[in-house]
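Tutorial sheet, problem 5. The two components below are modelled jointly, 227 residues in total.
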Amino acid sequence: DAGVIQSPRHEVTEMGQEVTLRCKPISGHDYLFWYRQTMMRGLELLIYFNNNVPIDDSGMPEDRFSAKMPNASFSTLKIQPSEPRDSAVYFCASTTRQESQYFGPGTRLTVT
Amino acid sequence: QQQVKQSPQSLIVQKGGISIINCAYENTAFDYFPWYQQFPGKGPALLIAIRPDVSEKKEGRFTISFNKSAKQFSLHIMDSQPGDSATYFCAAIPWRGSTLGRLYFGRGTQLTVWP
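Model answer (structure tokens):
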């Protein structure tokens, strides 16, 4: 079975540009999570969905960040406008009830 | 507020030795306890997990010990190998309540196994 798929794997952009990260969860999983990892702050939960509905977005840093899940097999995390402090590795993970989360390979974002 | 406390922050072990990482929690709503292994440049990978009705779970060289009354659990890596050098995260998940399904991570332990 394919695991969680994320694209792009690397993104380099200039400050002020819009960035869109994409995630395809494991088929059959009804929970989807977006995380950010930095050396300073470790792994932070940004937002998570259940059955395509956002459950908790309290970790979203500010209004520049938005996430959508239009269907069970696709989610996006958008940053507009991007800032250098958004540079991090962004992970998507998915799971189903009573199980652990499975993480994707991550997107390394660099904002210059 | 860190809901899952993990120690030590870093650990150095000789090849063939036993690596032990400890975690503690307070929230009794947690009912699933996974451990993740992360290599540089990779995503966290599920290593082993335990439910609170079991006191121990073993998979190969990896064992979770779980003490429900003390709200503590630990990861033991037997016969540690240089390839085990990675960051290990303990975690806890509540599968009931308002945050069901959310994964609460410890801060991680950087394990180095010397050959």
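Marking note: Chain B touches chain A through 20 residues (CB under 8 Å). Full credit if you identified this.
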